[in-house]
Write a structure and sequence with these properties.
8-stranded mixed β-sheet; globular; Rossmann fold; binds S-adenosylmethionine; 10 helices; alpha/beta
């Protein structure tokens, strides 16, 4: 049985990396009018409340997006409106603008909500979620954003759903895979599903989020090798970006996270190289004392 609930972690450093990158990738897709399909294989609840008691319990929302909006807002303004400070990278602003709008209503947008906000009349959105309670919350939340046939919500296991539902129509598009890694098999299922999906949908922009955990080093290396090899075979470009907010020597718990992207949009690597130094500085500031490797970041691109 699944027990992970994203409300404990919404808007934390991992969401900031994932959602800021997602926002940039969606902006790139919008440079052409041609329709696209967006797929979120592990959708979660779609929309979160900043002062939800689960978020308050972990403190992750406060140390994440609430802190970031506060630091980035120009000194003379409140955190919920006005200009950004001069040192805020241009590539981070679209995500900050989006979050500020939701924060004004006490909310944080999950990946389904971010995708819904970037859906034009010609596009489609496919959301997949397995959790029996989370799927109901997702349905209620998404009804507030989209009321027509552009949206499909699927209550099923993502790893078999991608086989059944992809490649999508329209073919142009983006998939986000954001597993909870609750069960050991998530690691191999994720690699298998993305390798197969890339083979069947070679033009899709495939984005994967993964946690940085010391005891999962070999799983992360295997995942990276599988995706890199799948990209090289077509050939397609492959990008890997990591944001560390703690020391890798931390024995238990998340010290950061990463995103792997097959077919990354043009210039995404440069936008991340501009954004990540700022994020690593601001998001580490709010944490405990620095350790080795804490507050670092990386962006690797293998371009074809
Ligand atoms: N993508 C969301 C966002 O960024 O707002 C957060 C998703 S959360 C990290 C992962 C979600 O995957 C959880 O809601 C969990 O219930 C769901 N999940 C776990 N295993 C799944 C599976 N095999 N298929 C579909 N959903 C699954």
């Amino acid at each position: 049985m699944l027990s992970y609930r994203h409300a404990f972690h919404a808007g934390n450093h991992a969401d900031i990396l994932k959602h800021a990158l997602l926002t940039l990738a969606l902006q790139s897709l919008q440079k052409k009018d041609k329709p696209y399909t967006l797929v979120d294989t592990h959708a979660g609840a779609g929309l979160y409340v900043l002062d939800d008691e689960r978020a308050e319990k972990t403190g992750e929302t406060k140390e994440g997006i609430v802190h970031l909006l506060d630091v980035a807002a120009a000194a003379s303004e409140s955190g919920l409106s006005g200009a950004w400070k001069d040192d805020v990278p241009a590539s981070l602003k679209p995500y900050l603008e989006l979050c500020r709008g939701y924060a004004a209503q006490g909310k944080y947008p999950g990946s389904p909500e971010i995708m819904a906000r970037n859906l034009r009349s010609q596009d489609k959105l496919m959301l997949i979620e397995l959790h029996n309670t989370e799927i109901d919350v997702l349905r209620v939340n998404m009804k507030k954003s989209i009321h027509d046939g552009r949206l499909g919500i699927h209550h099923r296991n993502a790893f078999e759903a991608v086989d059944a539902l992809l490649p999508p129509d329209p073919r142009r598009g983006l998939l986000l895979m954001d597993p909870s890694y609750e069960v050991d098999s998530d690691w191999t299922n994720t690699a298998d599903a993305l390798v197969k999906t890339h083979r069947r949908w070679p033009v899709g922009v495939l984005c994967l989020w993964y946690p940085l955990l010391q005891h999962r080093e070999s799983e992360i290396a295997l995942l990276k090798a599988s995706l890199r090899e799948a990209a090289a075979a077509t050939p397609s470009s492959f990008l890997c970006a990591e944001l560390l907010v703690d020391s890798p020597e931390r024995e238990a718990g998340l010290y950061g996270s990463g995103m792997m992207v097959i077919n990354p949009p043009w210039h995404l690597d440069e936008q991340l190289k501009e954004m990540l130094p700022y994020l690593s500085r601001v998001l580490t500031e709010s944490g405990e004392a620095a350790g080795p490797g804490k507050g670092s970041w990386s962006v690797e691109l293998e371009a074809v």
